[in-house]
Structure formats: structure tokens, C-alpha cells
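pinned: reference chain
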Amino acid sequence: MFRDVSSCNTYNYGDALYWDSRYIQEAGGAFDWYQRYSSLRPFVRNYVPTSSRVLMVGCGNALISEDMVKDGYEDIMNIDISLVAIDMMRRKYEFVPQLKYMQMDVRDMSFFPDESFDSVIDKGTLDSLMCGTDAPISATRMLGEVSRLLKPGGIYMLITYGDPTARMPHLNRPAYSWNIVLYNLPRPDFKRPGGGSSTKSYMEPIPITEKGTLPADFVLEDPDSHFIYVCKKDG
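pinned: its C-alpha cells
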């Protein structure tokens, strides 16, 4: 398992200094990686009850946690490696008690006891680590921590550009005891040939072969689409 270079344009994504600099430049802005909550809502509501204690890893300055609170979610802990981002978000949401913010590296979340969360949501954080030169080690450390923090029956929801060939070797490890269901979602700005609308349901899981790959006859509607891995910890 090597570094994932399929969508990497920098090797600094695991570095707090890179993100601090970026968020200073984006002061006051907001950016949601890959998909907005409106697109992810059917998946989140299907697997994560509103009463869940949720951990949002690599929260950055995204709006997804705010949107989830508006949708009824009651307890979301947001963490990010960038203290700049965390300080900014703390000030922005200081009067929203459902949202809490802490500066933390996902590779070491020892602040939290075992089985602290019902759900962990990851929108691009594992992808960022996969761009680093120490990608396999970083991914193993992060996913080990995610598994440790999930309660039995808990959900790790990974939204990523990584197809099963790139992600399943990291996710499908016996140590995690995860049952994995895979979905595929086109990019928000994807234009279908001819301008028509799709007839397929994106809530239909995609089968995964025993080798952890997409079936040979499966065709992606959007070649640069996003994958949603729903990993349920054995109860």
C-alpha cells in the first residue's frame, strides 16, 4: 500500500503549517470538500441518528456540521490539525452549544477514551493523509484511532475520491471489525452527456468483489465521482 497520488498536487496535506497558512488566507470563508450536506443528507440520516455523538474529523472551515445541527443533530465534536481553523470556528459558533471544537491530529486522538462516539464522519481527511510520503503509516494510525473511538455498532462514514482498489486495503482489516457498504455519488457540478437526468438511485449500494474491487461490468456515471464507505463496527 503506497502513497495515493491519483489526486495529489502537494505533499503538505498532513502538515499543520500548510493548513494554518491556508486558513489564514481564507479568513472568514467556508469551504466544503467534495460534497455539500444537502447531497450527503440521505446517507447521513440513514446511518447516523440525530441523537448520536458525532466526531467530525478534519472539520476545517466547512459548513457540514452547521448544516447537520440545523437538521436536528445534537452533539458534534469537530477536530482539525490546524489551530487557526479551530480558533476561527470556535468564534463563529460560540453560541451554538451543539458544536464543539478542538485542535487535534487524527493520528493521535488519545484525549478521547475508547468507544466515545456513535459516529465518525470523514470528508477528505484520510485523502489528505494519503497524499503524504508516510501515507500507509498515517492511514493506519488514523483508522486505528477511529476504530478505537467507535462504540460497538458505530459508523465510520468516509467520503473520498478513492475507489475500492485504493481504499479497501486500508479499511478492510480484521483489526477494525468493520462491515463495509459502498456508495457512489457524482460530483455536484457533473454534467451528464446530453444534459439528461440520471435514472439510477445513488442510495443503492455498489457490490464489491472478494478482492475488494468494483465489479468488472460496473461503469461509473461520473469518472471523477466520489465514493462513500459506510463502515459499521461489529457489535
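why pinned: The two ends are 28 Å apart (CA to CA). Residues 91 and 222 are 38 Å apart (CA to CA).
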